[in-house]
Amino acid sequence: MRNSASRSSPAMRHRTGCDGNAQRLSAFTDVRDLQRQLKAQGVALLNEADESTTGLASFVAVDPDGNPVLVDQHV
Known about the structure:
This protein is an alpha+beta fold. It is 13% helix and 27% strand. A hairpin with a 5-residue loop joins strand 3 and strand 4. It is globular.
């Protein structure tokens, strides 16, 4: 059963561009590339990053159980 509270706050967060200590990575997959890959696989998105931009961006995908997952890029 889906938890309606989970729709307003992501159950999981995935950051791109930095490690677990918020240190910038020298190489990473841009959040917009991840978004395009997930969309091509049919993953539902609650909101999307603007693909005409670079740098900071985020999107929220929905996992198979209906939980939102925030994918966030800080660089």
